[in-house]
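ok so i was messing around last nite and threw this chain in just to see what happens. nothing serious, just curious
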Amino acid sequence: MSSANDFAAINEAIDAYRSLMVSEEFREYVRMREKAELRELYALNRAREEARAEADKKWQSVVDEKDAEIAELRAKLGNA
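result:
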């Protein structure tokens, strides 16, 4: 008898799940959640690109500084 009740409960749960999946309210919730996740991904990607650009800018200033030091040393060696 217990297995018949278990079977009925499982069928009831499946039916509830199916009715939830087709409800307009649930589909709207899923659509809004997906849209929010997409916005978050765009924001994270933009932040990563901005951080990369900032790092590139910082490293370029270091390279420029070192290039200037090398040029200055070469000039001193050429004049010595």
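not much to say yet. The radius of gyration is 32 Å.
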